[in-house]
C-alpha cells in the first residue's frame, strides 16, 4: 500500500469525516487517496492555506472533535502559522497534514520546491507534538500517536509531515486500530478534600472558568449553587453556565466583586488577569484545577493546585464540599439586580456596540453560534453578548488574530450545517480572507457575516490618537463596495444603516441558501476597553 493511502486510511479510521485544504505538488498522493475514499470524506477546498487551517480550527472549536487540514510544505505550512497558533492558544484539537521535499534532500538546503530550513522544528514550536513519517509502515503508529496527543491532556494542535517519495512508496503495512478513549486524569483526593474545606468555610467564594471547563457545565452549576458563588468567564468559558442563570456573570462583573472574594476556584483557565492585574493578598485563598500540570504554578503558586480533568475533579469536589459547606442563603435576587446594573452600565457606556449585540442576540437562536473578531463590536461581545450554551461563542483567545473570524466561521458552519451561524468582522479584518467567500459560495453555506465598516484599523488609530498626541498614521482604509463584492462572488449582499434594518437583514439572511454579507457603516464607537483594561483592586502582598 502506498504511503499516502496509508496516511489517509489511518486518519479516517479515527472517525474523521471532513478535511479542509488545498492540493499541491508534494501532496498529490494524499489527494489521490482522498479520491479513492471520496464517499467517506467531505473535502472542503479553500482558497488559501491559512483559510483551510482556520476552518479546521472553527470545526474543532465548535464541536470538540478533531479538525483536519492539509497543505503543501514550506510556504504552505508557514501560511497556516497564525491559525495554528490560534488553535494552540484556544486549546483546539487540530491536525495538520503536510508534505516535504524529497526525503533524500531534507535538511540539505538543495533548493527543492517549497524547501524551508527545519520545517519539522517549525511545526514542533507551533504545536503540541509533530512528527515526520519516514516510511509507509510507520504511518499507522504515527497517526495513532497524533490522535492520542489530540484527545488526551490539554488538547492542542499536532502535525504530521511525509515526503512525496514516501507518499508514493508502496510497502507491506499493518494497519492499527484507532486510539480508544482514554480515562481522564483523576485528581488527588487529598487535594480535593483540602479544596472542599477552603470552599466550605468561605464567605464570598468565586468560580472562574476557561475553555478547559467546557465539558463540566452541569458539575459547575451544581458547585456554584451549593456555594451561591458567581461564575466568571471571559471568552473560552462563555456559555459553560448559561447567562440566563443568576450565578453566571461577565468578566467586568467579576472585577467588581473581586475585592470581597475570600476563596476563588479557577477551573480550566490560565487565571491570568486576576492574578496579574486585579491583584491578590493574604486574605484571598486560591484553588486552581487544570489538566495541564505546567499551568498550575505558571504565574503564582495557589493554596491548592489540582491536576486533573475539570469534569471529574469538580464532580469529586461536590460530595466532599457537602460535608463541610456552611449554610448559605440564595443570592438570586442580589445577583439578578447586580446583573441588571452591569448590563445597564454596558448599555450606557459602550454604544453603538451594545445595541448591535442586542440585535444579533435577538435574531440568533440559543443554539446558534456567534464568531467574534478583532473589532470594536467583537471586544464588547466578550462581556456584552449573552451566551446560553457551550461552544456557541467562538473567539481567538489570547492569539487575538485580526482576520481570523470569517474563515473560522466557515469551518463552524461546515461542522454545524443545521445551526444558524453569525460572524462579525471589521472592514479591515474581513479583507484578510475575503477570497474565502468563494469557498462559502461553492459549498452553499448559509453563513451570515456582518461587516462593520468605518474605513480604519480603529483600535490602532484610537491608540495612536490617545498615546501619541494625535499622530495617527497607517490606519485609514479604502474599501470596496461590500454588497457588490458579495454579489460578484454569487453571495447575497445587504446594507443595514440602523439596528432595525440589521435585524431585518439577519432574518432575511437566514432564509437564503448560500452565504450572506451584511455591511453596516458604524461611525464613531465608544471605547470598549474600559470594561476590559481593569485596574488593580487588591494589594498583591500575598
UniProtKB/TrEMBL annotation:
Spans through the membrane: none
GO biological process terms held by the UniProt record: isoleucine biosynthetic process; L-valine biosynthetic process
Example GO molecular function: acetolactate synthase activity
Domain Thiamine pyrophosphate enzyme TPP-binding: 378-519
Domain Thiamine pyrophosphate enzyme central: from-to ranges: 194-317
Keyword flag Oxidoreductase: no
Keywords tagged on the record: Thiamine pyrophosphate
UniProt-listed PROSITE patterns: TPP_ENZYMES (PS00187)
Domain of life: Bacteria
Domain Thiamine pyrophosphate enzyme N-terminal TPP-binding: 1-120
Protein name: Thiamine pyrophosphate-binding protein
Species in which this protein is naturally found: Govanella unica
Lineage, uppermost ranks: Bacteria, Pseudomonadati, Pseudomonadota, Alphaproteobacteria, Emcibacterales
